[in-house]
């Protein structure tokens, strides 16, 4: 089957993660184009992934089957200026921007585009992303967007766009929460006398092992936690401290403010 020609508007962190996911899944480099204003960034993406690069958004979209809008929400209006009429009438437009609704994107694009809104996350870089999609476009366009996202990991559909705010707070931003915990665990290992290298490996491998158990064991997180926690033991001492210091409440509040921020970006 002929591969889709996919063009990215913006070649930043999330675009790179999707490009890496596509390349790992066997999507041909010359069927991927990236429009990115940063010269160094263009060189890096071309060098590392073999993709076509340009500084001109309009040049990138003219022959694309799928256009992926991968700029910051605040940059979208400027990025779309002067390109809507160059996007093919049958092209699928995928937006990964936090907050921006399908209706808002449609008005920015002049109303005619086949839009799919997606909230991906950066583990797409290693083929372990999780994405949530929403669209009112027809099957062909939904199917194309799903192809992109499943190349990068797993994908779920929403039937209520409003839920995208909660998704963004949970899985869009979520990798950063786990990275923070891992950073702190690594630093604590060093403070307790381990070498930086060993502490980093132990923290990262523990995150990987815990993540795999969550996905592969079929058991809920609290049951897995209890398996580690010997009564009166070391884990119990650590978890008691985390509860006393309000960690669960802090995480709940953090997701609530992330969700609210997504709503603000939409307005
Ligand atoms: N980073 C993440 O974990 C996730 C990001 N997103 C969304 O992805 C989008 C991009 O985020 P990041 O990759 O983190 O940002 P980023 O800042 O790394 O990438 C944005 C890129 O767009 C380029 N750019 C700026 N103005 C442009 C224009 N007019 N035309 C073309 N390119 C332009 C910038 O030079 C930059 O390389 C955002 O809308 C964000 O909400 C969604 C899910 C996760
Ligand atoms: O921080 C942000 O706004 C974006 C959306 C989800 C992850 N990064």
UniProtKB/TrEMBL annotation:
<comment type="function">
    <text>Catalyzes the reduction of 1-pyrroline-5-carboxylate (PCA) to L-proline.</text>
</comment>
<dbReference type="GO" id="GO:0004735">
    <property type="term" value="F:pyrroline-5-carboxylate reductase activity"/>
</dbReference>
<feature type="binding site">
    <location>
        <begin position="70"/>
        <end position="73"/>
    </location>
    <ligand>
        <name>NADP(+)</name>
    </ligand>
</feature>
<keyword id="KW-0560">Oxidoreductase</keyword>
<dbReference type="InterPro" id="IPR036291">
    <property type="entry name" value="NAD(P)-bd_dom_sf"/>
</dbReference>
<keyword id="KW-0028">Amino-acid biosynthesis</keyword>
<dbReference type="GO" id="GO:0055129">
    <property type="term" value="P:L-proline biosynthetic process"/>
</dbReference>
<dbReference type="GO" id="GO:0005737">
    <property type="term" value="C:cytoplasm"/>
</dbReference>
<feature type="binding site">
    <location>
        <begin position="9"/>
        <end position="14"/>
    </location>
    <ligand>
        <name>NADP(+)</name>
    </ligand>
</feature>
<dbReference type="InterPro" id="IPR000304">
    <property type="entry name" value="Pyrroline-COOH_reductase"/>
</dbReference>
<dbReference type="InterPro" id="IPR008927">
    <property type="entry name" value="6-PGluconate_DH-like_C_sf"/>
</dbReference>
<dbReference type="InterPro" id="IPR029036">
    <property type="entry name" value="P5CR_dimer"/>
</dbReference>
<feature type="domain" description="Pyrroline-5-carboxylate reductase catalytic N-terminal">
    <location>
        <begin position="5"/>
        <end position="99"/>
    </location>
</feature>
<comment type="similarity">
    <text>Belongs to the pyrroline-5-carboxylate reductase family.</text>
</comment>
<feature type="domain" description="Pyrroline-5-carboxylate reductase dimerisation">
    <location>
        <begin position="161"/>
        <end position="265"/>
    </location>
</feature>
<protein>
    <recommendedName>
        <fullName>Pyrroline-5-carboxylate reductase</fullName>
        <ecNumber>1.5.1.2</ecNumber>
    </recommendedName>
</protein>
<keyword id="KW-0641">Proline biosynthesis</keyword>
<dbReference type="InterPro" id="IPR028939">
    <property type="entry name" value="P5C_Rdtase_cat_N"/>
</dbReference>
<keyword id="KW-0521">NADP</keyword>
<keyword id="KW-0963">Cytoplasm</keyword>
<dbReference type="Pfam" id="PF03807">
    <property type="entry name" value="F420_oxidored"/>
</dbReference>
<dbReference type="Pfam" id="PF14748">
    <property type="entry name" value="P5CR_dimer"/>
</dbReference>
<comment type="pathway">
    <text>Amino-acid biosynthesis; L-proline biosynthesis; L-proline from L-glutamate 5-semialdehyde: step 1/1.</text>
</comment>
<feature type="binding site">
    <location>
        <position position="57"/>
    </location>
    <ligand>
        <name>NADPH</name>
    </ligand>
</feature>
């Amino acid at each position: 089957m002929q591969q889709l020609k996919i063009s990215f508007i913006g070649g930043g962190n999330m675009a790179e993660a999707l490009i890496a996911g596509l390349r790992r899944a066997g999507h041909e480099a010359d069927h991927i184009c990236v429009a990115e204003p940063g010269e160094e960034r263009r060189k890096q993406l071309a060098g590392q992934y073999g993709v076509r690069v340009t500084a001109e958004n309009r040049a990138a979209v003219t022959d694309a089957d799928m256009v992926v809008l991968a700029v910051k929400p605040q940059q979208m209006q400027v990025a779309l200026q002067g390109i809507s009429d160059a996007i093919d009438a049958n092209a699928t437009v995928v937006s990964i921007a936090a907050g921006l609704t399908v209706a808002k994107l449609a008005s920015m694009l002049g109303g005619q585009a086949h839009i799919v809104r997606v909230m991906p996350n950066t583990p797409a870089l290693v083929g372990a992303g999780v994405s949530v999609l929403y669209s009112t476009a027809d099957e062909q366009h939904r199917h194309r967007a799903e192809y992109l996202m499943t190349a990068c990991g797993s994908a779920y559909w929403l039937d209520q766009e409003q839920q995208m705010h909660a998704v963004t707070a949970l899985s869009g931003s979520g990798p950063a929460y786990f990275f923070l915990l891992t950073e702190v665990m690594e630093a604590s290992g060093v403070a307790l006398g381990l070498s930086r290298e060993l502490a980093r490996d132990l923290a990262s491998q523990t995150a990987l092992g815990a993540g795999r158990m969550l996905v592969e064991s079929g058991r809920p997180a609290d049951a897995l936690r209890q398996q580690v926690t010997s009564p009166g033991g070391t884990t119990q001492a650590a978890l008691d401290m985390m509860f006393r210091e309000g960690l669960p409440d802090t995480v709940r509040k953090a997701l609530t403010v992330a969700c609210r921020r997504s709503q603000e970006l939409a307005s």
